[in-house]
Amino acid sequence: MKVFAVIVTYNPDFDHVANLCKVLIQSNCNVVFVDNSGNGGLDKFSKVAEVSVLDLGTNEGIAHAQNVGIDYAVKQGADTIVFFDQDSQIELNFLSALLAPLVIGTPKVVASVFFDAKQGYEYPSFRFS
User: How many CA atoms lie less than 13 Å away from 61 in the CB half-sphere?
Assistant: First the structure.
């Protein structure tokens, strides 16, 4: 499974996205940062083989930025794309657990549960069929 994570950023905390990136790479995931702020702050990642930085130059909106990331990942041969935001924190086994129900060639959507650490609140999940 060739997995790409698309992470749209807007003036992110560099250390925070670096930690997320590190865990994703350790999970055999390619990382695509789509910089929606135009400040070039993610250039430090450009030397990491598993990381691509796409700088939009300005805020184009999250949907456009995600579509740019999707297009890039597909052109690189991705068969699975996951989305994270710049504030996401995951553990090393998270990605493998999230992707376990997927079968290549069978369309499926999986999602994690969102936990608001500041409020101590887990948002409800929905199941679609």
Answer: 3
Yes or no: say if 7 and 31 are a contact pair by the CB < 8 Å rule. Answer: yes
Strand partners, 29: 3
Residues with Cβ within 8 Å of 11's Cβ and at least 6 positions away in sequence, in order, are: 37, 39, 41
Bridging pattern class, strands 121-122 and 115-116: antiparallel
Cα–Cα nearest to 86, from 2, 10, 5: 10
What six digits make up the tokens of 28? 């055999």
Q: How far, CA to CA in Å, does 65 sit from each of 10, 31, 33, 54?
A: 11, 14, 9, 9
**What backbone torsions phi and psi does residue 87 show, to the nearest 5 degrees?**
-100, 0
Q: pLDDT tens for residues 30-81? A: 999 999 987 777 878 877 889 999 999 899 999 999 999 999 999 999 999 9
- In this structure, are residues 43 and 53 in contact, taking their beta carbons and an 8 Å threshold? yes
